[in-house]
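To fix ideas at the outset, we first show an illustrative case, written as a sequence plus integers encoding its fold:
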Amino acid sequence: MKKLVFMFVAVAMMMGACSGEREYLNYRGMSMGMSAKQMVDSLQMQGLALDTNKYEDRYVLSDTIARNFSVAIYHQNDTISDILENYVATYNDSTSNLWQKLHDEFEKEFGWPNMRHSGDLHKDAFYKNDKGTVELILLNTYSPTLTVRYSTMMTE
């Protein structure tokens, strides 16, 4: 009887450990599992300014000086679904260098990406793990841009 009770307790503990809460991607050291409003408040404390336009599905923040960086936090009922960062530069080297830096950081965390496009002026890397996905897109055309999309979605 004692063995049966012990097995029951052990199985119950294992099931409890396996049914833990889902882990989320981190965005700048903050979990994407927090509420969208909490994420916005945290980013404002880091110096980003909230766009005063009202959007139903997202909050938009940007740097206050150069306006060359913005972040949009997409949400449904205050639950974050995606975070989209956009960097705009005046010359291609700055976006290329930033792309390489981010690519190296994401490669350490997620492993080698699925390279959807890899050219001199256009690069698109897709990273995926059990917490979500990250897409890193470089477009070095007339107006060089770098976009990073963090998503809680688990599929491509």
